[in-house]
Write a structure and sequence with these properties.
It is a single chain. The chain is built from 5 helices and no strands. By secondary structure, it is an all-alpha fold. It has one domain. Helix 1 (about 1-35) packs antiparallel against helix 2 (about 45-55). The longest helix has about 35 residues, at about 1-35.
Length: about 170
């Protein structure tokens, strides 16, 4: 199970990287098209879709590598059972919020699909297409938070500190 979850997180990270490459390609195409005097309709919208896809698809991988911004002002001062209780509460709350975001993201994409909702920009893209990576990223983030919660409850969670945090000024 651990290997399957890690593959899921890594797979989403690869998709996020592809989204970033698509964003780069869209921006470069936009720049080149302006310089050469031709127009690519909807290229700005596609750049936005790629940026949103990259952001949402990278969330779970970022969480699992300890790179999310975390306010540890209170938890950092606790020790023992109090710290563990605070960690469990924080992970439970985060998992609940992530589950809500996942439910509503999937619902939004489904409604856009069933209602045949399209972009108001010149590209007229069916909105469920760019909403799908957002829904997938939200679902995988919820899975990652539930994974962290279960690991913490079992006492198996390894708290990762990003290297940058150890070199703060």
């Amino acid at each position: 199970m651990r290997r399957a979850l890690d593959r899921l997180y890594d797979g989403c990270a690869v998709l996020a990287a592809l989204g970033m490459l698509a964003l780069l390609a869209a921006v470069l195409l936009s720049i080149v098209s302006r310089q050469l005097g031709f127009n690519v309709p909807g290229i700005d919208a596609y750049a936005g879709y790629a940026m949103a896809a990259a952001g949402f698809l990278a969330l779970a991988h970022t969480l699992k590598h300890g790179e999310h911004i975390r306010v540890t002002l209170l938890v950092g001062r606790l020790a023992g059972r109090a710290r563990r209780g605070a960690e469990l509460w924080a992970l439970f709350a985060a998992a609940l919020l992530a589950l809500l975001a996942a439910v509503y993201s999937v619902r939004l994409a489904w409604l856009s699909y069933t209602l045949h909702d399209i972009s108001t920009a010149s590209d007229a893209t069916p909105l469920w297409i760019p909403q799908l990576p957002m829904a997938l990223g939200s679902v995988v983030l919820a899975i990652a938070f539930l994974d962290e919660l279960v690991l913490e409850a079992r006492g198996q969670r390894v708290s990762q500190q990003p290297e940058e945090a150890t070199r703060n000024e």
